[in-house]
Amino acid sequence: MKQPEKHDLRFVKNENLIRNTFQEMMDENEYSKISIKELTERAQINRKTFYLHYPSLDHLLATLQLELMSPALEKISKTTFPDDAEQIIQHSFEFMASLDPIDKKILSSKGHFPEGLNPPDLFREYFFRKYDRLPGYTRFETNLIITYFSVSLGVIYRQWEVDGQRIPLEEMVPLATRLILHGLNGAGLIGKDFSVNSAEEENREP
């Protein structure tokens, strides 16, 4: 049986159907609770049709994650690390803040890839590929530096989201930059007197 071409109208129609159905299901459930059987039943296609497009549900997830990340990675590809660290942080924050809830859920979902194809892994892999070895550092030292940068960026962004983005983006980017590049000292914590009156502390809470 001849395989349909990817520009074939029926192939394109089924591709869109699979993606739209998957996104609807992601809006209703966690990724771990979605199965190919349920997806194909809802989309009213057979399993063979699904496998013509994707080898597994994880591959569908990874494809969508890569497509979502591509615009941010394209911008980051034009920067230099660590000189443009603040630009990289800003691009990352702006990208994540622009996503709708379903896309954020897709990006935060974890597939089962032994080679590691989840968003944080993809981000680090991209940097490892671009900055295979920073000047003056071994490859292993470079890997540690890039891992520290990307993990710190991800953790700070997630906490900002959890807190309801209470800090404006234009203030959050410089703060995240100081924290990532200079640690606690970047937040002005080193040598600071914390003997603040509890009443004053409460008054400062929004």
Report on this structure.
The protein is mainly α. It is 67% helix and 0% strand. It has ten helices and no strands. The chain has helices spanning 9-28, 36-43, 47-53, 57-76, 85-98, 101-108, 119-130, 139-162, 169-186, 198-204. Helix 4 crosses helix 7. The longest helix is centred in the last third of the chain and has 24 residues, at 139-162. The mean pLDDT is 84.
The assembly state of the depicted protein chains is: single chain
Helix content: 55-70%
Count of alpha/pi helices: 10
**Low confidence ranges:** none
Structural class: mainly alpha
* Inertia-based shape: elongated
Q: Give a quick account of the main beta sheet: strands, pairing sense, barrel closure.
A: none
The strand count comes to: 0
| Gap from first CA to last CA | 66 Å
**Mean pLDDT, nearest integer?**
84
Round the Cα radius of gyration to an integer and report it.
Answer: 21 Å
Order of helices and strands: HHHHHHHHHH
What is the beta-strand fraction? under 5%
